[in-house]
Every structure is written in C-alpha cells, then in structure tokens.
Amino acid sequence: MSLLLDAFSLVAILLGLVFFVAGTAGLLRFPDAASRLHALTKADHLGLGLIVLGLLPRADAVGGPARLVAVWLLVLVSSAAAGPLLARLARRR
Amino acid sequence: MAAGAIRFALLLLGWAAMTGGADLVLGALAAAAATWCSLLLAPPGPHRVRPGALALLVLRFPWQALRAGTEVARLALDPRRTPTPGEVTWAPRLPPGPARDAFLAYASLLPGTLPAGAGRDGSVVIHALVAGPDIAAAMTAEEARFARAIGADG
Fold it and tell me: Deepest of A78, B11, B25, B36, by most Cβ within 10 A of its Cβ?
C-alpha cells in the first residue's frame, strides 16, 4: 500500500514538473505578451495542482492536506485576478 | 447580517481545517477581521448562490484545468505546432458590475481564453491562444453556467 502511494506521489509530482517546464517553454516560445500569460498561468496551475495531488498522501494528518489545497486555491485566485489585468495592460501599449 | 454570519462561519471553518482546530480564539479574531474586510470590499449583492449549480461548477473545474494545461503544454513543447493567437470580440450577457468581473476572472482560468479588457459598445476583448469562431460561443456557454451558479440569471 505504501509502495503504491509512493509510486502515485512520484508520478504525480514528475508530471507536475513536466507542466512547469512546458509553461516555461511557452514563456520563451510564444509570440506575444498575452500568449505568454496563457502559458504562465494555465500550464503552471496544472503543474502545481499535480504536485499538490502527489503530496496529499504524504501530508500530516492534521491540517496538512487542507493547507496544500489552500496553496493551490490561493494561486488560482491570485492569477485569476492578475492575468486579465496584465493582459489589459499589455494590449493598451 | 446573515451574509456576514455565513462568511464568518466559512472563514472559521477554513482556519479549523488548516490548523486542525488549534488556536481557535485567534482564528475567530482573524475570521472576524476578514469578515469585516469582505463586507466592506464586497458587500452582499442581490444574487443568491445556488449550491447545486455551484457544486457542479467547482467539480467541473479540475477537468477544465487539465484541458487548459495540456492544450498550452502541447503548443509549447511540440515543435510542429505553433500558437495562432488572436483577439475575439465577445458580447457578455451579464451586466457590467461585480458579477461580470468575477466571471471574467474565472474565464481566465478556462482553456484557451484570457479576457483582455473592454472593446467597443460594451463588448469584451478575449485573447485566445488558438483564435477561432467557437471562442465566443464557448464563453457564452460558460457564462450561462457561471450565472446559474451565482444566481445572476434572473
């Protein structure tokens, strides 16, 4: 059982890292500021979500899982607020 | 008053979940301060949230995040594919105000769309990673789901 959980954590975290790499590749490759914002937000949200998912079975029983999920939610909320603002500024220039 | 009580209870519940029930007095003080701020910054509107529709929206979100992330990752990592970004003008149904702003923030997390400011005649400019005619229709469908969840569809 613990071996299975370890394998689950490993796969989820490695997959999460792949999406962070993809987000960074998009930041370098995409042609305009708004497209780079797509890469930085959407790929990294999924990457962070997968890393959080992989860490959940390893979290302390008291409060740990809720804290991990809260990290993901706070990142989502802050980039939902910042993304459209930055896109609007980039378009105005 | 009821809105304040509900927000206070949810914030305290969040505190309890994260601390495992430790320092509840401190948590109650923090939740009270946060409730005061939230009532000041986002006073309760005329809409009544529909729990069922909201739960559907929340449960659907991980799938949307997966679609959005894989779409961007494939465009970024596959050398044979390049993004064809463009701007799409979209006419929102929600009136200008906090409900529309909340939806636009939410839409920035959905696959392929990033609201990028106001267009002419009350429209909204959507930046799309792969611009196409189906972007506006997808936005309208998502807006309907969102409006149902927050009770803003009349």
Answer: B11
